[in-house]
Design a protein that fits this description.
This protein has 6 helices and 3 strands, in the order βαβααααβα. It is of the alpha+beta class and 136 residues long. Helix 3 packs antiparallel against helix 4.
Length: 136
């Protein structure tokens, strides 16, 4: 079972069916792709400011590691440790950016076998509840 947090823009005046296109499902847990390349992970998720920050930090840390005179094995281990640390926080960073920079709000949490199953389950419960009460 996988879990997804669901986010929706704070825009008002749209019908529930029009908001379906704007729903964002954020997978909970460790971001495995972010271990391999935090920069590509950020770009894939359109986190432009995060990607710029990662690029700056990578350049700064690579410069520091070169000045310290570490060997290539130590540099690889150092980079891997940083990537794992980022991957642990990657989902939280993505949610923060959605809320703070893009104006989304947390709409709910859903679990299922995969993302498609989670989307189906969420919409089965969410759409009827939206049709019953008007958006304030």
């Amino acid at each position: 079972m996988t879990g997804y947090s669901v986010y929706l823009p704070k825009q008002k005046g749209f019908a529930a069916l029009e908001k379906v296109d704007r729903l964002v499902f954020v997978k909970e847990g460790f971001a495995w792709f972010a271990v391999l390349s935090p920069l590509l992970w950020a770009l894939y998720h359109r986190l432009w400011t995060v990607a710029l920050g990662i690029l700056g930090i990578m350049l700064l840390l690579n410069g520091m590691v070169s000045l310290m005179g570490l060997g290539s094995v130590q540099q690889i281990i150092f980079t891997l440790i940083l990537n794992v640390a980022f991957a642990i926080e990657a989902t939280r960073i993505r949610k923060w950016v959605l809320e703070q920079q893009h104006g989304y709000r947390f709409e709910g949490f859903v679990t299922g076998q995969d993302e498609t199953d989670c989307q189906r389950r969420f919409l089965q419960n969410w759409l009827p509840s939206r049709e019953e009460r008007p958006e304030a």
